[in-house]
């Protein structure tokens, strides 16, 4: 995971919560496959307005909690040129300095790098040549590709270190 993927995942989840709330509020339980029980219950006996409001409140509260918890990710500004670096640079784009604009222009003519953009913009930016040939752009871009280790991966790493330094190492002696 990196900042861009994390922002995408959080944003997608928050949009889905709004859709869920809207479907429940409109009593359109067939619009989402997540509501087979509500759809059946509504067909057998109409669900009360009070129950619908209560069901709507849950995704609404989840959305609010996610907004508060992930405010740093949701407000993170990812420059447009990062996802489509081969378009003609906009000189008025906020935050771009002259050196970065020049490097974006040079990047547009570096046809060696272009095939990686067809795979993904992450593969494009993580090529070795980018950091070497376009240092000003790389200094702006690399922060967005910082890896987010999950707690599981961190714990797994600590467990490996404990094993290496513990009994496993004593067996080597």
Description of the molecule:
This protein is mainly α and 173 residues long. Helix content is 68%, strand content 0%. It has twelve helices and no strands. It has helices at residues 3-25, 36-44, 49-69, 71-74, 80-83, 98-108, 114-119, 121-125, 128-133, 135-141, 151-165, 167-172. α1 (3-25) runs antiparallel to α3. The two termini are 39 Å apart. The mean pLDDT is 79.
Secondary-structure-based class equals mainly alpha
Which H/E pattern describes the elements? HHHHHHHHHHHH
Q: How big a fraction of the residues is strand?
A: under 5%
Q: Helix count, per DSSP?
A: 12
Report the biggest beta sheet as strand number plus sense, adding barrel if it closes: none
Contiguous uncertain segments of 5+ residues = none
The overall pLDDT average reads 79
The count of DSSP E runs of length 2 or more, i.e. the number of strands, is: 0
Radius of gyration based on Cα positions: 24 Å
Categorize the overall geometry: extended
Distance between the termini: 39 Å
> What percent of residues adopt helix (DSSP H or I)?
55-70%
Protein name: Transposase
Keywords:
Transposase, 12 helices, 68% helix
